[in-house]
Amino acid sequence: MLESYWLRFMAINGLAGTRLLLIRSHRDYDEFLTLASDARAKVAHIPVIDIEPVVENSKVTQQIVSFDLFDIAIFVSVHAGQIAMQRLDEYWPMLPVGVDYFAIGRQTASFINGYVNNVYSPGNNANSEGLLELPELQDVKNKSVVIFRGGRGRETLSQELSARGANVEYCDIYRRVKNQKNLQLAYRQLSEIDFLIAHSGELLEAMGPLKNLENFVSGNLFSVVVPSQRVAEIAYDLGYGSVFVAKNALPESMLAVLEQNI
After folding, report:
1. Other beta carbons less than 10 A from residue 94's beta carbon
2. For residue 11, what pLDDT is reported?
3. pLDDT grade, residue 13 (50/70/90)?
4. Quick one: which H or E segment has residue 172?
5. Which end of the chain is more exposed for a tag (fewer CB within 10 A), N or C?
6. Helices vs strands, H then E, count in the chain
C-alpha cells in the first residue's frame, strides 16, 4: 500500500503533460486511467479490440451448468470474471460450495470477491507464473480445473497444472474482435503521443506492424510500454524499436516504468 502511494506521488511530479495512448478495452473501472489522471498525464483511451460474450456455444453452456463439478475456477481477466459471473448467475443463483476461486490481477480478484468469500490471487506478481506459485495450487493432483478466458492465449497455466496432475479445461467465455473504426482513430493519435500503452501482445498485433503505420506516425518517436518481456518481444517483432518493460501489468508498475523513462 505504501509503495502504491509513493509511486503515485512520484508520478504526480513526473508525468504531468505526458501524452499516452491506451488501447485496451473498456472496463467498468480502470485503475490505470485513474492513476494516470491523478498524475496529470494526458490520456487518449481508444480500445482497438472489443469484448463479445460467447453465448450460443454448447460447450460453454455445459461448463456453466456443470460448474459444481469443478474443484478450482480460475479467471484470467476482469472481462472473464464479469462475463462468467453473469452466465453463472443464470444457472446458479447461489454458487455451489466446494469450489476454490483464483484470479490473475488485483482488479479481477476484487470483482470476484464481490461474489465469494475468498479469492486467491498472486498480488504484485500479477501473471500466470505468480498464480502458479501460490501454495493453494501446488497439490492439485486429480482436481478438476476450469480456466475462464477469452479464446486463445498463453498455455502456461494449463500446461503446468496438467503437469501437476490436474484435469484442466478452458472455458472460452468471450471473444476479442478488432474495432476497425477505433483502430483508425488510434492510428491518428500516433503522431501526437509520447507512449503507447499496450497491456497485451494481441493489442499490438491488432495495431499491426509499425512499417504499415508510417503515414500516421509522421516521424514521431513514441515509445511502447508493455507488462512483460514476452509482450516486448512481440513489439520488437512488429518493428517497435523503443520498448519499456514494466515489472507486471499492475497500474502502478506500468506508471512507474513511464516515470523512469520520460
Report:
1. 6
2. 44
3. low
4. strand 167-172
5. N
6. 12, 12
Residue 45 C-alpha cell reads as 483511451
Dist. CA 112–CA 119, nearest whole Å:
7
DSSP 8-state assignment for residue 208: -
* 261 pLDDT tier (thresholds 50, 70, 90): confident
Which residue do the cell numbers 523503443 mark? 242
pLDDT of residue 82: 95
Residue 77: closest CA among 205, 172, 178, 160: 172
If you average pLDDT over each of 6-10, 64-68, 125-129, which comes out highest?
Answer: 64-68
Cell numbers describing residue 14: 513526473
pTM to 2 decimals?
0.85
3-state class of 63 per DSSP? helix
Looking at 176, 196, 229, which one is the last position of a domain?
176
Residue 33 burial by Cβ neighbours in a 10 Å radius (0-12, 13-18, 19+): middle
Tens digit of each residue's pLDDT (9 = 90 or more) over 125-171: 878 899 999 999 999 999 999 999 998 777 889 999 999 999 999 99
* C-alpha grid cell, residue 26: 473498456
Largest CA-CA distance found in the chain, in angstroms, rounded: 58
Burial tier of 2 (Cβ tally within 10 Å: 0-12, 13-18, 19+): exposed
pLDDT at res. 6: 43
Q: Does one domain contain both 37 and 77?
A: no
* Separation of alpha carbons 208 and 124, rounded Å: 30
* CA-based torsion, 249, 198, 112, 158: positive or negative: negative
Predicted confidence (pLDDT) at residue 9 exceeds the cutoff of 60: no
CA 123 to chain CA mean position, Å: 14
Cell 462468467 belongs to residue: 84
Q: Are residues 166 and 110 in the same domain?
A: yes
The range of the structural domain enclosing residue 38 comes to 2-48+179-260
